[in-house]
Specification:
With 72 residues, this protein is of the alpha+beta class. It has three helices and two strands, in the order αββαα. The longest helix has 20 residues, at 41-60. The chain is elongated, with a radius of gyration of 18 Å.
Length: 72
């Protein structure tokens, strides 16, 4: 697990909310007040894109270089 400060996490969650990628849902009757974040349809549509980016990163993370000739 990656460590992230509460301030940075809060800022990122707020940005995702602003762009309608997630919605914040307050969980009633919890002490302290609980919240959960749910992907919107727009957020769900990002899943295959992020998976593709992840696959691309795994392919090239070990130092493999892209050859221009294979792109032509």
């Amino acid at each position: 697990m990656v460590n992230i400060s509460d301030q940075v996490l809060g800022r990122q969650l707020k940005e995702l909310e602003t762009h309608a990628i997630i919605v914040k849902k307050v969980i009633p009757d919890t002490v302290p007040i609980g919240v959960e974040y749910i992907l919107t349809n727009k957020g769900v549509d990002l899943i295959p894109i992020l998976e593709s980016l992840c696959d691309w990163g795994k392919t090239y993370a070990d130092g493999k270089e892209i050859s221009i000739s294979t792109m032509l």
